[in-house]
Amino acid sequence: MPPAQGTASFDVIVVGAGLTGIIAAQRLLQAHPETRLTILERDYCVGGVWSERRNYPSFWTQWTHGIAEFSDMPMERPPADDCMNDLFRAKYTTKYLEDYVDNMSHSGQTLRDKIQFNTEVQTIKKVDGQWQLLCIDTISKSQRAISASRLMMANGHSSVPNMPNFHGRERFQGKIIHSIDFGQSSIIQDEAIQHIAVIGAGKSAADMIYEAVKSGKTVSWIIRKTGDGSLGAAAFAPIDLPTPYKNGVEASQARIMASLQPCYLIPYRSWWTWLLHSTNLGAKLVSKLFSALDNTIRKYAGYRERKSDKGFKKLEYDNDIIWQNGTAGGCHFADFWPLVAEHVYVHRADVKSLSGTELYLDDEDGTHFPCDAVLCGTGWQDGLQMFDNDTLIRLGLPYPKDIEPREETVKWEKLVREADEQVLKRFVMLRNPPKHYHKYETRTPYRLYHTMAPVHDDSILFMNYIVAGAKLFAAEAQAIWAVAYWDKAFALPSVAERERDIAHMCAWNKRRYLSNGELGHFAAFDSVPYVDRLLDEIGVTSHRKKGWLGNMFAPIMPTDLGKVWHEYLARRTK
Question: Which of 160, 454, 558, 562 could cross-link to 395 by cystine, CB 3.0-4.6 Å?
Answer without folding.
Answer: 454
